[in-house]
Fold this sequence. Notes:
It is a single chain. This protein is an alpha/beta fold. It is 37% helix and 20% strand. The protein has two domains: 87 residues, Helicase, Ruva Protein, domain 3 (Orthogonal Bundle); 203 residues, Rossmann fold. The chain has a seven-stranded mixed β-sheet with strand order 7-6-5-8-11-13-12, with helices on both faces. A two-stranded antiparallel sheet has the order 1-2. Strands 3-4 form a two-stranded antiparallel ribbon. It is elongated. The N terminus is likely disordered.
Amino acid sequence: MVEQRTENPRVGSSILxxxxxxxxxxxxxxxxxxxxxxxxNTEFDADLQQCLRQASHKLDSRLEAEILLxxxxxxxxxxLYAHAMTRPDTAQMQAFSNLLERRLAxxxxxxxxxxxxxxxxxxxxxxxxLIPRPETEHLVxxxxxxxxxxxxxxxxxxxxxxxxxxxxxxxxxxxxxAAADLSPPALAVADQNRxxxxxxxxxxxxxxxxxxxxxREFDLIISNPPYVATGDPHLDQGDLRFEPALALACxxxxxxxxxxxxxxxxxxxxxxxxxxxxxxxxQGEPVASLFEGTGFQQIKTETDxxxxxxxxxxxxP
Length: 317
């Protein structure tokens, strides 16, 4: 079977769409999963090595099989190799079966395990927040390179899980970091991560962009805002089907919120302050033009690891 690939507009890279699941065949090959409900075949007596082999075949990914089995057993992946001949009990097999069934239906690994690594730290994630992506790590790296004051005032707009704001606070403890989001459930997730990482000094704000922060000034405004165009067919494909639309898409060909943020940032940055925005790989030129039209200087669009335009930054005079 020839694998076809589609492009994810959030990351600009190829992702494999899920193949159609033929449940009759699935039941014959992997008896842990039924076509209607997740049921363990109690007669199926397999050790971890056999579980991984069969799950890897169905998922077409050894890595995903290991992650899900380790999660079902509440162990690390390395434990699976040290205990390859261990036979899971019925409850563990049921949990693994349920995870496999959900993954085969397309649910993202991060939502199944409830976490995703970002910049070397694990962040709690659920369906209320966007899944942190490696491309966004470059946004953080670029912010850390800027010539900011020792006690820079920083705001992360559309914080979601809080991965950007909390990473900046962890890497630069003297910075005064705040994080804003329009979604109360997303702020609840960010709060969980804030407490778990011991970064209670990071301020969480319920705000539509900078609307509730108009009386404050910042040295850095950073954001990974929604930038997929409303109605884009990619929203119905892959992981994007499960992620919150509020964090993914907006009107104006995906540029409406970016336009609003650039205009607001102009009024709330100190002289010499910086604005960093992640955007779609086809939005580099229009975003840079918006920066220029609003009076920003030292404007630069930078590429991600795939060589695609991914973020634009500029300094307000």
